[in-house]
Amino acid sequence: MKFDLHIHSNYSDGHASVAEIIDAAVHRGLDGIALTDHDNMRGIPAARKYIKERKLDLILIPGVEVTTSEGHLLVLGVEEPPKRKLSPEETIEAAHTLGGIADVPHPYHPFRNAIGRIPNADAVEVYNSKHIFGLANGRAWVEARRRHMPMVAGSDSHFAETVGLGVTELDAEDVDEVLEAIRAGRTRILGRRTPPKYFAGNMFTYIFKRIVKK
Predict the structure, then answer these.
(1) What is the 3-state secondary structure (H, E, C) of the chain?
(2) C-alpha–C-alpha distance, residues 35 and 59, integer Å
(3) Which of 80, 100, 102, 183 can bridge 92 by disulfide, Cβ–Cβ 3.0-4.6 Å?
(4) What does the pLDDT read at residue 201?
């Protein structure tokens, strides 16, 4: 089964509605998605309602991309987001307390609020489809393999058109089984690069803000 575990909607900085995201996921043959807006989970009820009303065979993993004291961390399988600005280790502990798991997204990607290291999370995002040369993905893969950590992929999509470009393949029938498969490292990574037109603007905005702060 194929899952995109890193998607943003217009409930944070994404450009697509949850309906557009879900339609795109179904159209591209995904079996499930994680909605991971920044520091909020307001899109989850709307997504659940849309899936139920249309009787879609799609697993929705409730998630959130949390701003820690060092950078971003993905939390999956929770019903409320951990507090912001905790350390990565404290955020991972909070994710577990809330019944979920934590994975480190784009740990070495420049311009992406990366943590810049890999804490002892449940998994590492070793393929993020928003890349130019893939060097940061490669570094994440090498480090995760060296430490025998589970590996996942995600599109980091902010547009409906890019949903499904980063896929984690695993066997699961519901959210709990998805989380267990990830913890156990029973995953396979599939992916295609996001066309730069869908993220170049975000990169330049990040650089500009960093310059202004200085």
Answers:
(1) CEEEEEECCCCCCCCCCHHHHHHHHHHCCCCEEEECCECCCCHHHHHHHHHHHCCCCCEEEEEEEEECCCCEEEEECCCCCCCCCCCHHHHHHHHHHCCCEEEECCCCCCCCCCCCCCCCCCEEEEEECCCCCCHHHHHHHHHHHHCCCCEEEECCECCHHHCCCEEEECCCCCHHHHHHHHHHCCCEEEECCCCHHHCHHHHHHHHHHHHHHC
(2) 11
(3) 102
(4) 58
Strand partners, 173: none
Q: How many CA atoms lie within 13 A of 112 on its CB side?
A: 21
Cα separation of 180 and 168, whole Å?
Answer: 13
State mean pLDDT over 157-173. Answer: 98
* Residue 95 in this model has a pLDDT that exceeds 60: yes
Closest CA to 5 of 135, 187, 133, 137: 187
Q: How far is Cα 78 from Cα 167, in angstroms, rounded to an integer?
A: 21
C-alpha to C-alpha distance for 105 and 71, rounded to whole angstroms = 10
Q: CA 152 to CA 3: how far, in whole Å?
A: 10
Distance (Å) of CA 190 to CA 87, 182, 200: 30, 15, 22
Residue holding tokens 């961390």? Answer: 73
Q: Which residues pair with 125 in a beta bridge?
A: 152
CATH architecture of the domain formed by 2-213 = Alpha-Beta Barrel (3.20)
User: What is the average pLDDT score of the chain?
Assistant: 94
Model pTM greater than 0.90? yes
